[in-house]
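Co-fold these.
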Amino acid sequence: MSRAFLAILRRDLALAVRAGGGGELALVFFLTVVVLIPFALGPDLNLLSRIGPAILWLGALLATLIGLDRLFQADEEDGSLDLIRGAPLPLELAVFAKALAHWLTTGLPLTLAAPLLGLLVALPAEGVVPLTASLALGTPALSFIGAAAAALTASLRRGGLILPILVAPLCVPVLIFGVSASDAARGPMPLQSPLLILAALSLMAAAVGCVAAAAALRQPD
Amino acid sequence: MTQIRFQTFALTAEALACRRGGRAIFDSVGFRLANGEAIALTGRNGAGKSSLIAMLCGRLRPEAGAIKLDGLDDMPLAEAAHLVGHRDGLKTALTATENLRFAQELLGSAGLTPAEALATVGLPHAGPLPVGYLSAGQRRRVALARLLVASRPIWLLDEPMAALDVGSQAMLSQLMQGHLAAGGAILAATHGPLGLDGARELRIGP
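Predicted complex below.
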């Protein structure tokens, strides 16, 4: 069973790094958003530094949404989803493997790039660690919530249009606590509690998202 | 090639009816498939051959009727059956070997190694090539090689001969004969001959 789990994980990671896999797309999009916003805002460094964490978190959220619709749709179209359905591995674990691969190829690179991009939005030095920690703990929730929505839209041809509408409201708590953790470095608020809530949100999304996605994928036409 | 004998099983379908998009496609289709038996599923285009196979895999809900698999320790049909359909389940960015290794690890029952399976379907040198570079017939043969890397008793094939050249059709017939001899069963939707002695014909639609 763990062999099948690792097989899915390994295959999705391999597909993401091959040409056209879309693994680098999220990172490039994230970079573009974060680089362009300071130009749009103008030369007010205080303003930029105040909304910097929000820019980074919004960029990370939008970058995660890019390509999310292909998570199950690509497998549905070429028939490999039928293979996965026929495997002895419970579908919930198959979804977990795919969502984990998605996080490893989008959420994790975004988290690692954030400290560097923090420089572009005048993030204060003491804010770098809280921001990176909040992204590391919060982005898994985005992948798992996204997996449930991607499973629902897997068989829709233009599922990419409806997916952000399904995902965005569910990601609001992650966004709120993500930004408040990053802000905690400057204010009197404690850093620990938003981070704990982010971790809880990710764990909850992993449990609920995998079960929901598996239920959606199991549904016969 | 060592052959694995399969346990005794019987797949029965009773009075299956299919309705898609509000239109009745077929009704009262039934069959029994046991060890060593083959069924050639025939019918005009749109008669519902692929729909019947989708029903057997659990991808389509029957409008009426029942599908039952006896034997094989109550294994669900989806786990006892191999499916090779129009959507071949291959990733174009991965090599033939990677695709087959993935299928083997995912489906998890012992079979040939990917290299042996590719040699059996006549593509001994295709292993390191991305599937996207292969022709339609070669892709079909890589998909058919999946039948060999994991051993499952029931083969559900949707037009397996499509895109295959004459030599490959004979190779597939031979593979199917071997599978039947080992106690497996085959249900194949087809328009042409399968090259199997003793395959029953199940015709759906007018």
